């Protein structure tokens, strides 16, 4: 007799195998069939319990939980949580933070609109993660007009502080505070 948990795992694996086979054919044809994260969130009722393919940037931190962990995949300003086995997570992955563009990946897995396993959260239980492009540092050039404004404001602030201190010193000595 197969337990309900084992049956769910078998069905999930079959969904994932089907999704991987479909996405492998699509990749050979130049089309990933990936859904935008924003669209996936908006249409979560339609994709609930179904196999999905999402392409996006890994951002934030990897949060390990036992033999699994959480990743965040972002696309066009919207992010979604991905529940993934630690073995599927590349050891040398680059996660996006300020100054670093994270790895671009394709995640294939089962979409959960209200995941019973994770407190009703919207998430994807990943079956596979495919690296599309490595992350890299992002250079944020300094705007010269802002640099000049910062210097001028800094000098002005220092000058105002010096005048205030001089005024306070004159007041304490009994001098004329108005001059």
Structural commentary:
This protein is an alpha+beta fold and 179 residues long. The chain has 2 domains: 4-137, Beta Barrel (OB fold (Dihydrolipoamide Acetyltransferase, E2P)); 141-179, no CATH class. It has helices at residues 4-28, 37-42, 44-47, 144-172; strands spanning 51-65, 68-75, 78-85, 100-101, 104-115, 121-133, 136-137. The strands form 2 sheets. It has a 5-stranded mixed β-barrel with strand order 1-2-3-6-5. Strand 1 and strand 2 form a beta hairpin. The longest helix is centred in the C-terminal third of the chain and has 29 residues, at 144-172.
Chart the SSEs and their pairings.
Blueprint lengths: L3 H25 L8 H6 L1 H4 L3 E15 L2 E8 L2 E8 L14 E2 L2 E12 L5 E13 L2 E2 L6 H29 L7
Parallel strand pairs: 3-6
Antiparallel strand pairs: 1-2, 1-5, 2-3, 4-7, 5-6
Task: Describe this structure in a few short sentences.
This protein is an alpha+beta fold and 179 residues long. Helices cover 36% and strands 34% of the residues. The chain has two domains: 134 residues, OB fold (Dihydrolipoamide Acetyltransferase, E2P); 39 residues, no CATH class.
The number of helices is: 4
Q: Any idea what the CATH architecture of the largest domain is?
A: Beta Barrel
Q: Oligomeric state of the chains? A: single chain
Question: CATH superfamily name of the largest domain?
Answer: Nucleic acid-binding proteins
State the helical fraction. 25-40%
Low-confidence stretches: 24-31
Please state roughly what percent of the residues sit in beta strands, choosing from under 5%, 5-15%, 15-25%, 25-35%, 35-45% or over 45%: 25-35%
Strands of the biggest beta sheet: in what spatial order?
A: 1-2-3-6-5
Q: How large is the radius of gyration? A: 27 Å
Q: Give the termini distance in whole angstroms.
A: 95 Å
* CATH class categorisation of the largest domain: Mainly Beta
SSE class? alpha+beta
CATH topology grouping of the largest domain:
OB fold (Dihydrolipoamide Acetyltransferase, E2P)
Rounded average pLDDT: 85
Q: Sheet bearing the most strands, described?
A: 5 strands, mixed, barrel
* Counted beta strands: 7
- Count of distinct structural domains: 2
């Amino acid at each position: 007799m197969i337990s309900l948990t084992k049956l769910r795992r078998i069905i999930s694996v079959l969904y994932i195998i089907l999704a991987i086979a479909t996405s492998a054919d699509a990749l050979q044809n130049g089309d990933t069939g990936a859904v935008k994260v924003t669209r996936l969130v908006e249409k979560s009722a339609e994709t609930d319990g179904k196999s999905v393919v999402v392409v996006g940037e890994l951002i934030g931190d990897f949060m390990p939980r036992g033999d699994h962990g959480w990743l965040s995949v972002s696309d066009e300003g919207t992010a979604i949580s991905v529940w993934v086995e630690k073995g599927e997570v590349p050891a040398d992955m680059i996660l996006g933070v300020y100054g670093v563009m994270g790895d671009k990946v394709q995640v294939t897995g089962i979409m959960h609109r209200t995941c019973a396993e994770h407190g009703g959260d919207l998430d994807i239980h990943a079956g596979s993660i495919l690296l599309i492009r490595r992350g890299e540092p992002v250079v944020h050039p300094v705007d010269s007009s802002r640099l000049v404004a910062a210097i001028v404001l800094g000098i002005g602030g220092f000058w105002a502080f010096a005048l205030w201190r001089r005024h306070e010193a004159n007041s304490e000595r009994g001098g004329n505070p108005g001059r």
